[in-house]
Structures are given as C-alpha cells and as structure tokens.
Write a structure and sequence with these properties.
The protein has helices at about 15-20, 35-45, 65-70, 110-120, 125, 135-150, 195-210, 225-235, and strands at about 10-15, 25-30, 50-55, 70-80, 100, 155-160, 170-175, 180-190, 215-220, 240-250. The protein is of the alpha+beta class and about 260 residues long. The longest helix has 17 residues, at about 135-150.
C-alpha cells in the first residue's frame, strides 16, 4: 500500500471478471513500453490467453512484439470532458423525441438490449475478431442490465417517439461520483441516427447532471467513432486524453521474439 493509502495495481494484473465472462484467463499489463516485452513473456509463462495494454499514441509496441504475441491495436480510446456543463436552452429543441428515466424495478427488454449491443459496434471487443461475437453481445447485455437496475449507473435515460413510449429508440447511462458525472453507454437505433435523438439524449443527460449538483462530465468513446466524437464536440466537449489500446494473445504467439524492450 502506498503512503496515500491507495493500493497500487500489480504490473501483471489478473482480471477475474473478464476471465470469468470470456471463459479463459485475461490480464492487463500496467507497465510502460520499456517493460512490455518482459510483461508478455511473463503472461505467456502464466498462460494468460488475452492481455490488454494501453499506451500513448507516440509509444507503440514494436512489430516484433506484435508478431510474436499476436498483438493488434484494437481501439483509440478517447476521453472527452465538458467543464462546466451549461444548462440546455429549453426553447431550442424542436425534434419529436421524448426522454424519460427507465424504472430501476423494470428489467430491460429485448429492444433495449439490442440498443446496448449497438453501442458496442466500435468497441475493442467487437474489433478483436478473436473474441466470439456472443461474448461481446453478452458483455453489453450485462452492462445494460446492471445500468437499468442502478448497479452500474445512477440513471438510464431512454428516448422514444410520442405514441410509441414502449419502443425505445435510444439510450444513455450516467454515473455520479463525487462532483463529477460520467457517461457510460450512448446508443441510437440506426433508423434514427442523424435525426436529433442523440442530441436530445445528451441535452437531457446534462439537465439531469446539473440537477444533481454536478458541473463536470466525462465520457470515453472510440476516436474512430466519428459520429459520437462529433456529437460531443458539438456540445462543447474537449478531447482530454487519447490512448491506444492493444490486445495480445500470448498463448497463440510463435514464441520467436528478441530482447526488444519497446
């Protein structure tokens, strides 16, 4: 334990939830580029099937390590921040979508689950084709179930069309921690994209966040998800951090690797 009382994560961190969900050993390497070769060797020795590693864009792993441990860049993780959150203009919205909170006593139906899975279309768990599609879909199904119940989010807001309140066409989840809010899932049905549903969801999310006394909100998305990035930027969000996330499959590698420390 550090002097501040915060437990420091080990360099090779076993991820029990991920391992249980995917059905094989998963870990994260928390070391920098200079220790990645060592970490992947250790991961192979310990028989981890999948290893996550994040780095700044200017410090990618070498082609040698990517080849030897079946590694690939699976997402450019972008963190956007809005500070302060401004009160949306009540008279500005003219699109027909209604936004309302999902009851925490109500189980998410199939339509809501499908929307949550759509939210993962650009995620690293979809980009990495070695991960079975059913495992990725199950992950997002669990995420929306936990968010709807209040376990993984403080509120789930759902977009509908007047007269079709039982048929959600969009959703957004929000979590409050201290004085900062964070957005988790944001999804709009493909038929309604570009028609203002995402804009309305984000505006109502801001109203809800302000009503809880928060003035700062962050969200993590994929830099390659251009529509999501544009939506946040239109609302004044600024790119605060960019990480490149790699997946390595040590057990599938050739084992032919030099002492490259990059």
């Amino acid at each position: 334990m550090t002097t501040t009382g915060v437990m420091k994560a080990p360099l090779l961190e076993e991820l029990s939830w991920d391992s249980g969900h995917f059905g094989f050993p998963v870990a994260r390497w928390n070391g920098g580029p200079e220790t990645l070769s060592e970490g992947l060797k250790l991961s192979r020795f310990k028989n981890y099937q999948l290893v996550y590693w994040s780095t700044c864009p200017s410090q990618p792993p070498s082609e040698t390590l990517l080849d030897a441990y079946r590694g690939a860049l699976v997402t450019r993780k972008a963190t956007f921040v809005l500070d302060p959150v401004a009160q949306p203009d009540a008279g500005r919205t003219s699109n027909p979508f209604q936004i309302s909170p999902w009851s925490k006593t109500r189980e998410p139906d199939d339509r809501l689950v499908r929307l949550a899975i759509q939210a993962g279309e650009n995620s690293r768990f979809r980009v990495d084709r070695r991960i079975p599609i059913h495992a990725m879909e199950s992950l997002y199904s669990k995420w929306i179930a936990g968010s709807a119940s209040g376990l993984l989010a403080d509120v789930l807001l759902v977009a509908t069309i007047p007269g079709s309140e039982s048929d959600p066409i969009g959703l957004i989840t929000i979590t409050i921690k201290g004085e900062e809010a964070s957005i988790g899932l944001l999804a709009v049905h493909a038929e309604f994209r570009g028609k203002g549903a995402g804009f309305r969801l984000l505006e109502e999310a801001h109203r809800w966040i302000l009503s809880r006394g928060c003035r700062r909100v962050s969200v993590v998305t994929q830099k390659d998800n251009l529509a999501a990035c544009r939506l946040y930027e239109k609302h004044g969000y600024q790119l605060a951090n960019l990480e490149h996330v790699y997946h390595f499959w040590p057990a599938d590698g050739s084992g032919a690797v030099s002492d490259d420390k990059s």
